[in-house]
Design brief:
Elements lengths: L1 E6 L2 E7 L3 H4 L3 E4 L4 E4 L5 H19 L6 H17 L14
Parallel strand pairs: 2-4
Antiparallel strand pairs: 1-2, 3-4
Length: 99
């Protein structure tokens, strides 16, 4: 999977690399390399929520909000649940893995 995501006018490459156990996380945000890394062994729900989480990480970085990781996790969880409950399709953010 190779795609780009726009956040505040910045373009990030979304890459799959490694599994969650090896990475120690479902995803990682890399400001300097303009990438968002996603573990390759996630379910579709985990993929979507992880990309949303990394987008919030990018917003936090660029706007210098200094949000704690706990706050970012709470924002992601709440926002993801609200969007899905209201019929928003998040699949385009994290397309399903190719077989």
């Amino acid at each position: 999977m190779t795609q780009t995501i726009q956040v505040l006018g910045y373009e990030y490459k979304l890459i799959e690399d490694g599994d969650a156990d090896t990475m120690g996380a479902y995803g990682r945000y890399h400001a300097k390399s303009s990438t968002m890394q996603l573990a390759s062994d996630l379910s579709q729900v985990q993929r979507e929520s992880t990309v949303l989480h990394e987008i919030i990480e990018a917003i936090n970085y660029h706007l210098q909000l200094e949000l704690s990781h706990a706050t970012i996790m709470a924002l992601e969880s709440t926002l993801y649940g609200s969007l899905k409950a209201n019929g928003v399709n998040l699949t385009p953010l994290a397309p399903a893995k190719e077989p």
